[in-house]
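To: structure subgroup
Subject: Chain for Friday's discussion

All,

I'm putting the inputs and outputs inline so they're searchable in the archive.
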Amino acid sequence: MKLKDLSREELEKLIAEKGIGSEYLDRAERIQRDVNLALLVGSATVLLGLTAWTIYKYKGE
């Protein structure tokens, strides 16, 4: 693999995989994914809780 023959995207990918700070980039991407999943699950839980609370509140009236 010669660096002169690589496209810009391939060079950026190579640097991201093997360059300085690639470990930190992998860790940051993993943390961001976990935070996004936690926010999604938390939002769904809040929405379901509010829906259940509203149903039980108006069902009793």
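Points worth raising on Friday:
The chain has a mean pLDDT of 88.
The radius of gyration is 23 Å.

D.
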